[in-house]
Amino acid sequence: MTTMTSDNDLTNFYETVEILARDAGKVIAEAINKEKKVSVKGIDWDLVTEYDRRVEETVITSLSAKFPSHKFIGEEDVAKEGKPPELTNDPTWIIDPIDGTTNFVHKFPHVCISIALVINKRVEIGIVYNPVIEQFFSAVRGRGAFLNGTRIRTSGVQDLSHALVGMEPWLAKDEKHTISVYSRAHFLIQRTHGIRSLGLAALSLCYVAMGAIEAYHIEGIDPWDVAAGQLIIEEAGGTVVDTTGGVLDLMNPKVIAACNREIAEQIVNLFKETDSITQKKISDFLPLINSNAQ
Ligand code: IPD
Ligand code: CA
Fold first, then answer.
1. Is the pTM of this model over 0.85?
2. What angle do CA 285, 286, 287 make, to 5 degrees?
């Protein structure tokens, strides 16, 4: 069954969540330079702190008190439950309490809270807030994208050779992705103005939205890393597609985010080219990577 939502409902949802995101931001900004209790979730590079859990719990408790029929997909809740989240047509808040937890642990000032409201499986509200350097990105579907209240638009660059592209090479730690990450990075370095890596997906997507980079690529992430940023990019005039060029699957995101369709298509085609070349060479590469893995 689909859910009916009015413009007034959306405004009410947005105004409520903006206050909560700003309050959460105060907690994150005050904590970043303090010592934290850091633990590992499953794999040794997936970190969590007491602040991730506290912020998520506060946001979910406040939203569910205000909107009791709404559902939630929160990163730390999902980690606790240990089963994959399910997205229905019901209004669902998708929350990453701290995106860039590794940055947060290391006091690297690129961290954010990311909150999206998804209704009928479509993102309607997106907020990404870096309280350390005071960047508050927001969008409500059909009303534009904003940074600290000022309208933002994606870059007008249409030629990949003039683009600056964000990506996250950390995925190379996973043997399934090692070759594609290094080869895609290699080709992006050779065929663009350069690559950048900030260590957090939600904020990097917003950097596409504000025109600071032309594109961003990442795989191996989760809905809470992408949902809010996807709407913010689309409302800023950009596009977010699956790495193969198809429609993005929010629940299993493999992302090419770009300032426009031309740049997205050029990256899709570049990856087709690099992946087919490296597939041929994969048997040469694997022994080398395995012998150097430790
Ligand atoms: C991580 C960041 C990072 C991305 C990882 C995410 P977290 O989120 O977004 O950029 O590469 O896949 O898990 O753990 O800091 O919330
Ligand atoms: Ca997180």
1. yes
2. 100
